[in-house]
Sequence to fold (164 residues):
Amino acid sequence: MHATDPRAGRIERGLALARGGRPQAARRLLAVVWRQLSPIDDAPLRVDCARTMACLQDDPHDRLCWCLRAVTAAEQVRQSYLAHCEVPLPLYAFYPSVLHDLGAAYRLLGDDDRAQACEQLSGAGLAGMHRLGEVGLREMAAFASARLAGRLGVPLPVQDPWAR
Fold:
């Protein structure tokens, strides 16, 4: 997956539609994108797409389903990273925000125990990111910058660790 993948642009368009007051159109567009994404090869895009879809759901159960899809995709990102980089980093070191979203979905459903567990994992993930040290944080920041720059059409000489 390259940061300039046109499907990433469609995810951004879906978000723009939602912000423009057209959530149904956004859901339709993102549903099409979701079906086009490979569970293995497109895991980072699946995380983005699922998180965006979760935010667009009116029903709390549907929101939870999309949050769970984002967590599953995040786990696939972690597995891909381990396969390519052989660095044993836990899922929550990369996706505290995915776990935060999941906790919020559980809280909407009144499941405070699961919500609290997700919030604790999210907090542990933030702490885990700090434990990565300067080199690990630089690598994560470079990857995030490359993805953002790709979405904005600005090429950066940063290698996407999941593109190999």
Residues 87-93, 151-164 have pLDDT under 50 and may be disordered.
